[in-house]
Automatic annotation (TrEMBL):
Gene Ontology MF annotations: G protein-coupled glutamate receptor binding
Name of the protein: HOME1 protein
Keyword tags: Coiled coil, Cytoplasm, Synapse
Family: Belongs to the Homer family.
Residue ranges that the Swiss-Prot or TrEMBL entry lists as coiled coil: 202-229
Location within or outside the cell: Cytoplasm; Postsynaptic density
Pfam families for this protein: WH1 (PF00568)
Biased composition, class Polar residues, residue ranges: 138-147, 156-173
InterPro entries: Homer (IPR045027), Homer_EVH1 (IPR044100), PH-like_dom_sf (IPR011993), WH1/EVH1_dom (IPR000697)
Location of the WH1 domain: 1-110
Amino acid sequence: FREQPIFSTRAHVFQIDPNTKKNWVPTSKHAVTVSYFYDSTRNVYRIISLDGSKAIINSTITPNMTFTKTSQKFGQWADSRANTVYGLGFSSEHHLSKFAEKFQEFKEAARLAKEKSQEKMELTSTPSQESAGGDIQSPLTPESINGTDDERATPEVTQNSEPRAEPTQNALPFTHSSTISKHWEAELATLKGNNAKLTAALLESTANVKQWKQQLAAYQEEAERLHKRVS
């Protein structure tokens, strides 16, 4: 067997009433053997007691457990995994004290075993953490400096594509300037037309002014003749 008893005693076994959580319920009619077992494979300590073929105690000791003496011959401890509280009634105070000493001893051993187990887990997980860190901080390689073949090919494609784009880009200004030129030609033609109209109007106005001057001169001459006649 992988589990071997390392300490045994005899006691009356009780469990707390699951309903009231106050009263003790006897699980053995008489004193039975209560033993500490050590599982070398799993490195755990357990308290086991059998009443015939029925296991009335099967409690794995953890560092958080506490064995409490509630009287000279009675002690108890809570087992959260079993969701109960166990009580033991001994025939003497000496047997109770001896059981309590062993409980503290194996509780400390369970704590040390747990710490060693955690250390092993940390040591085992360290390489994977380092490799994970290596993935984050990847070393410099020729590929990372110069780029891979695919990455190095990318700029060449871009460079080759730029000259092909140049004719289209250069054609845009010519098309745009041609449109602007036509626009200004139309504007210039309009201005020339307006200028011709203004010139014609000016000439017409000039002709009218000359005509008005001639008429004014005629009126003045006529006025002078009339003035001479009157005088």
